[in-house]
Design brief:
Receptor-associated Protein, 3 strands, 410 residues, mainly alpha, 5% strand, 3 domains, 3-stranded antiparallel β-sheet
Length: 410
Amino acid sequence: MPGMPTFAYQARDEKGAMRSGTVDAADQTAATSTLSQKGMVVISLAETSNFQRKQAKAKGSMKIGKVPETDMVMFTRQLATMVDAGLPLVQSLTALTEQTNNKNFKPVLAQVTAAVETGEQLSTVLARYPSVFDRLFVNMVRAGETGGVLAEILDRLAAYMEASSRLKHKVKSAMNYPVVVMSLAFIIVIFLMVKVIPVFAGIYKDFGGQLPAPTQVLINVSNVLRSPFGIVVGLAVAAFIVIFLKYIKTEKGSRQWDATKVKFPVFGPLFQKIAVSRFARTFAQLIRSGVPIIETLNIVASSSGNWLIEKATLDAAAAIEKGESIAPSLAKHPIFPPMIIRMITAGESTGKVDVMLSKIADFYDTEIEATLSGLTSMIEPLLIAFLGIVVGGIVIAMFLPIFKMHEMMK
């Protein structure tokens, strides 16, 4: 509406889906009321000035690439150190912009610095770059600005990001090893079946005679793989894998995959521990930073990385809004083990929920590390045995006729 301020908002609709946009209203209260009448729960709301519109337009024309997690951790840690040392925020941001070498991060920091220099709050500016600064980052910075403890909050945020990065690196390292080995084994087997076996088959055909059963089976499989039928099957398998990977990135597919993978025999408990650890650590940091509980739960839900955790957290937020405590609202969902519920209950009774959540996260990080070590030590001999049986079996089957060459010559 002409003459009225415009507010940019992020909210959840009646189905729990995230929505974002702008609304014209006299003030923030009126904007919140307007959105509530539409059945939306407001997550964040900020007035959009002319400068912000220009910045948004500039941002739209500038494609922002992915910023590595290590760069984000370093930026947060250094900014915390500079602010704590008493340097003005604009001067700190200018220095960090100049020393940043990442081509994706540098222009973002330059625009953030320019906006803060005009008098805007840092959290408001950071919220315009959700692909770089997520809601957790923005809301913790906002809490630090509100409480006048920005340096302390940034330091906590950096510690949180470092802990999350370490956990993610451990999981990836443990998972990458078997994937790489199995991929190499698959490539070797396909190469042997498609390129090497036909050569031996031609040689043995010239000799005549009946081949040993293992060698004949191997040659038959090689012929099928090189036939049009084998090529079609291979393309179908590849297409299925591509379709599956794209499907689990959709909202429906992601929900089904998250609900299924926690039920896997060996890896299911590991996936659950990773999700719960991330939930507890994020929850602890936001509560400790002074972010309101409903806002905290909404942020935890959107950053959990697991649909089961997200659904449970959103349900808990709705129950807490009606006056229920945190622990009973979370206890309704089996994704949270009983130990977590008991510790949160103890934290609520003592007023130290953040401390209990931090202990839960540390405990599960230790459990995850132990589980990964156990899986690695178990997978290594299994992979060696698999490679020995498959590749060794192929090699033996290929050379088996040579051992019986005198019979074939007769």
